[in-house]
Amino acid sequence: MAKSANAGGAELGQEDILQFVPIAEAVATLLKPHAEVVIHDLRTQTIAHIANNLSRREIGGSSLAELKDIGALGADVIGPYRKTNFDGRQLKSITAVLRTKAAEPFGLLCINFDIAPIEAARDALNLLAALQGTGEQPSALFRTDWQETVNSAIADFLGERGLAASALAKEDHAALIEALEEDGYFAIRNLVPYLAKLLGISRATVYKHLRDARHNKLQTVEA
């Protein structure tokens, strides 16, 4: 816990500014390392406590800069508002005005949140979204990349049945090959060795399932 000070030994009386130190420490701990919490004593216009010091200010230092940023103290909660840290990082801040029983302001509890990591993540996501594009894949390119076409068809087959490619049974292989044959995929050259490798079965097994699929199709037509 950072040290605190009753700046200049000022008479604090009933409204002890340091009673808010546990709150400052709790908030700073929850949001660490991205936020600092500063308690200002308006009666001495100095900093009474700093939790997770990001701004490199000192306890007992002047609060005039903070007061200038905040302005009027008519509201109990001021902000959120933007600030710039000493190192150029952008901070998003919010201030709670601490008041006496007579509603007179005697202190401020300021939370300064470093939004640089969030903005960097947002920029990265925006860049990724821009690179992905929004249009469909051109049909000519899609036709030439037959492996991607087959992969998509297999993914649809597995998704409809709630299956995983690594856990297909013999009957699942047969059903998949029958579905691919039904949609005309076996007109693609080199599909058999590709499927054999993809499914972890022999080419002979692929051909057997294909013969069975075509036989079943022929019987259905003749019926």
UniProtKB/TrEMBL annotation:
Domain YheO-like: 19-122
Top-level taxonomy: Bacteria, Pseudomonadati, Pseudomonadota, Alphaproteobacteria, Hyphomicrobiales
Domain Transcriptional regulator DauR-like HTH: 150-211
Pfam hit, one: PAS_6
The protein's name: Transcriptional regulator
InterPro entries: DauR-like, DauR-like_HTH, YheO
Domain of life: Bacteria
